[in-house]
Each structure stands twice: as structure tokens, then as C-alpha cells.
Design brief:
The chain is mainly alpha-helical and about 55 residues long. About 0% of the residues are buried. A two-stranded antiparallel sheet has the order 1-2. The protein has one helix at about 20-45; strands spanning about 1-5, 10.
Length: about 55
Amino acid sequence: MTTNLKATRVEEVSELPFILRVIWFFVLGWELTAAWILIAWTLNATIIGLPPRRVDD
């Protein structure tokens, strides 16, 4: 959308065809999600990223 003081013009944004978005989701989306979960579990296993534990005396 472009706006100036006198007029507003709305332009459509072209997007990828639906089938390409589905392929992207199933091929790369799942792999990126799995990688992100693996990184999170690894950081938790190495104590990095876990909240500190409160020690009661």
C-alpha cells in the first residue's frame, strides 16, 4: 500500500502457488522444526538455557 497526501494506492502482492507452499512446508518446514527442537534439547541437556534451580538451605 502506498499513501501520499492525496491518494492511497493498494497493490496486490504476488505469492507462490499453493502447491509450492505445501511442498515447502513438508520438505523444509519439518526439517527446520526438527533441527530447532534438537538444538533446544541439546541446550537443555548441557544446562545452557535451563532456569537456575533454587536451593533451599
